[in-house]
Design brief:
This protein is mainly α. The protein has two domains: 3-77, no CATH class; 83-293, Orthogonal Bundle (MetI-like fold). The protein contains 16 helices and no strands. The two termini are 35 Å apart.
């Protein structure tokens, strides 16, 4: 092959490059923007409904605010703050989601480091057991754990729900963080051991900072799963410990009369996970791109 032919071959764009150029075109960007706007319509509708009175929402659709902006009011949120059921359930949701997330991240990080870099008897069999637990559905444990929590006296309390979410969140946490921690260079850990650092010091000073993207991603998944859960909370909580998902579900029995409470409460329940996601979005993207950068 001559030099001229070789230059032509080298200058010819590959299939991947052609696809990349097509996907980056303005037409595709416009289509993606339209899809994003279409996906946001229910959220926008919920927000506008939460700013309308119950009578207006019952008589017309939320899109009427564009022609009648005088319908917008914050009275629903004022009434929501005076609703003890909703405010109490909102605090219960925080008391459930935050400890369940912290415990899963803390225990999962320690266990993931142990499975990745420590040698102990039965390590491989225990890892297989963790992987098997990933396939166990939540519904299988509802009745056995309900009986166990009843015997321990924590059925119907926030503690029982936190323990349930922690137990079912740990297999995924251990598996995810173990795979991420194995990508830490072994030379770095060996150098720390030569300098006299123990396992705890290596974990907190080296592995934990390097694994921050994966830990943040795990925290996002666990928090969203716990915050939005209704099945477990519906079974393991009572009227004094129910989260906001169960509180909103109880209001659905009188949907027509409580649409103002439902809309504002649902939007309040939705906005908190969004804030958490966008706050940790940078770490979440880093974790997704970590494998391609190795």
């Amino acid at each position: 092959m001559s030099a001229a032919e070789l230059t032509i071959v080298r200058g010819r764009p590959s299939a991947g490059q052609r696809i990349t150029r097509i996907l980056s075109s303005s037409v595709v960007n416009v289509v993606l923007l339209l899809v994003a706007l279409f996906w946001l319509i229910p959220s926008v509708g919920l927000f506008l409904t939460s700013l309308r009175s119950g009578a207006d929402s019952a008589s017309s659709g939320w899109w009427n605010v564009f022609t009648k902006p005088a319908q917008l009011t914050i009275e629903n949120y004022s009434n929501l703050l005076s609703n003890s059921t909703i405010t109490g359930s909102f605090l219960n949701t925080i008391m459930i989601a935050v400890p369940a997330t912290v415990l899963v991240v803390l225990i999962g990080s320690i266990a993931g480091y142990a499975f990745a870099w420590m040698q102990f008897w039965g390590r491989d069999w225990l890892l297989i057991a963790v992987i098997v637990l990933l396939a166990v559905p939540v519904q299988v444990a509802l009745i056995p754990l309900a009986r166990l929590f009843g015997t321990l006296g924590i059925f119907g309390s926030v503690v029982g729900v936190v323990l349930f979410h922690t137990g079912f969140g740990l297999p995924f946490a251990i598996f995810l963080l173990r795979n991420f921690f194995t990508q830490v260079p072994s030379e770095l850990l060996e150098a720390a051991r030569i300098d006299g650092a123990g396992e705890w010091r290596i974990f907190f000073r080296i592995v934990l900072p390097l694994g921050l993207p994966a830990i943040a991603s795990l925290a996002i998944f666990q928090f969203l799963w716990t915050w939005n859960d209704m099945l477990v909370a519906l079974i393991f909580t009572d009227s004094s410990s129910m989260p906001i998902t169960v509180a909103i579900q109880t209001q659905l029995r009188q949907f027509g009369a409580n649409i103002d409470v439902l809309s504002s409460g649902a939007f309040l329940s939705m906005i908190v996970p969004l804030i958490v996601f966008f706050a940790f979005q940078r770490y979440f993207v880093q974790a997704l791109l970590a494998g391609s950068q190795k």
